[in-house]
Structures are given as C-alpha cells and as structure tokens.
Amino acid sequence: MIELIKKVVDKLLIANSVVVFTGAGVSAESGIPTFRDKDGLWQKLKPEELANFNAFLRNPDLVTEWYSHRRKIMHEVKPNSGHYAIAELEKYFERFAVITQNIDNLHRRAGSKNLFELHGNIERNYCIKCKKQYDLGDIYPDKAIYCECGGLIRPDVVWFGEMLPEDQFEGAVKAAKTCDVCFSVGTSAVVFPAAYIPIYAKQSGAFLVEINQNQTDLSQMADVVLQGKSGEILPIIVEEFKKRKNQELKRN
Ligand code: BV8
Ligand code: ZN
After folding, report:
1. The model's pTM
2. Are 43 and 111 part of one and the same domain?
C-alpha cells in the first residue's frame, strides 16, 4: 500500500487542481450507515419507498420521520479523520473541490471550503408549495410538518427521479474536467448522474485514485486503487504529502 501511496503523492506534488469525490463510505467511520453495505440503509428500507417525491406525498409522516431520524444521527456524530484529512489537503492547492453525494454536512463541519453538494443537505428544508426555507434546528418531527401557507415541508435533498441542483452539478463537472488528480472515496459509484464525476475526470486526463473498502464499477478504470478504510488511508496520504512538500521546500 505504501508504494501506491507514494505514487499518489508523486502526482499530488505536481498537481495544480485536485477533486475529491465522496459518497457514504467517507462518513461510515463517523457512525453514519451507508446505503448499500450489508448493514446499509437500503437493506432495511427500500429507497423507492422513501427517497422519492411520490413516496413523500403518499406517506409524508413516514418520510418525515425517516429524515428526522437520520438528521438526529448526523447531529450526534462528528467528522472523522478522513473528512479532516480532505479539509487539510485543500489548504495546499489553489484549485481544490470536494464533490459529495452525502447530505450529512460533515465535510463542511470538518472545514472543507470549496464544496459541491450534489444531493443536497439534510440541514435545509423547504415548503413544496411556496418554497419557504425552514431550518428545523434540533427538532426532529416524527410526522409531516406544514408551512404557514399549508404546504408540506420537505428536506432539501435530491430524491430519485429528481434533478440535481444545476449550479452544484455544473460547478462539479467543470472541476472534474479540469483536475489533475481525482479521488473517488467511499462510493459504490452506481448513482447517476453524480457517478459521472470520476468518469469525466478520467476521460479528461486526470490521475484517478479510488479509496474504498471494496471493488466497485470504477476500480478497473482507476490508476490506483487503495483498498481499505478512508479514515485510515486519507491521513496517511496527507502526512506523506506534507513530508515530501517540506523536503522540497528545504531543498529549494
Ligand atoms: C435523476 C439523497 C433524472 C437522498 C440519493 C438506470 C441506470 C442509470 C441511472 C438510473 C437508472 N434508473 C434510474 C436512474 C437514475 C437514478 C439512479 O442513478 N439510480 C441508480 C440507483 C440505478 N438517479 C436518479 O434518480 C438521480 N436523478 O437521474 O434524475 C432526471 C433527468 C431529467 C429530468 C428529471 C429527472 C437522483 C439520484 C439521487 C438520489 N438520492 N440520496 C438521501 O440521501 O436520502 S442516492 C444515495 O445514493 C445517496 O445520495 C448516496 O450518496 C448515493 C450513492 O451511494 P454511495 O454514497 O455510493 O453509498 P453506498 O452505500 O452505495 O456505497 C458506499 C461505498 O463506501 C461502498 O462502496 C463501500 O464499500 C464503501 N465504504 C464503506 N465504508 C467505507 C467505505 N469506503 C472506505 N472507507 C470506509 N470506511
Ligand atoms: Zn409554504
């Protein structure tokens, strides 16, 4: 593994632009269940029954309660060493973008600045009728809640069959198509159009590094696959990078 990490650091040392694309796996070590792992969310619940607009209209109490439950977990957990390593690495690059599919707000809490949230953010909610925004803070309703205009209030996340926020996706695609190194961290890379991000990066000539506990659809396209926990691997990459960067500075 260390030889592969040195190869990644060699590329980082000559890179001008870096993208880190993340999925639920980067938050797993914070204690947030992923979707498709054996103990994942989709094992117990069916996404089509919960993460889509018609399910919400059919059963607003159930969907509202499910998001309250997930938001409560997200308020009780903290960013892990993987989130912090990504935020630390960002300080060394003029052009650095974190492109996440996660809605858990942990990259922001870890200090990442240039962040694209392709699937929204569970901290934001809005009325489906008048679009008024609501911050629910630390209340976790277990049934549907309504706006003063009478409209249902929903989480500001992208459900299946819904468009991704245009500004976020466009910005992310631009970053992916112009980066020198692209990391794909903790994602099964099966949800589109988000999963195009690492593919666009690779097609545009970026050095593609996958960090995942398992093989994914992306593995055979990656230049380097680092198999293991992102919370362990990312800090090693950043430490090795900083060490080599300091050696370079001393030499010059
Ligand atoms: C759209 C937000 C159309 C809400 C989510 C057939 C083919 C292609 C596409 C489709 C198709 N049928 C339907 C579609 C479209 C659909 C889609 O892609 N479906 C897939 C499942 C086939 N996509 C959509 O519907 C998208 N919208 O297409 O709109 C359109 C077009 C025009 C006009 C109008 C509409 C919207 C998709 C967004 C859905 N929202 N979530 C919520 O979170 O509640 S999806 C959900 O999956 C999450 O966002 C999540 O981020 C995303 C991806 O999952 P991952 O993050 O990758 O998590 P997963 O559990 O899968 O994997 C975790 C990985 O981590 C694993 O590989 C594991 O090994 C690894 N891991 C675990 N622990 C660690 C680790 N790695 C390292 N360290 C660890 N410690
Ligand atoms: Zn309203």
Report:
1. 0.96
2. no
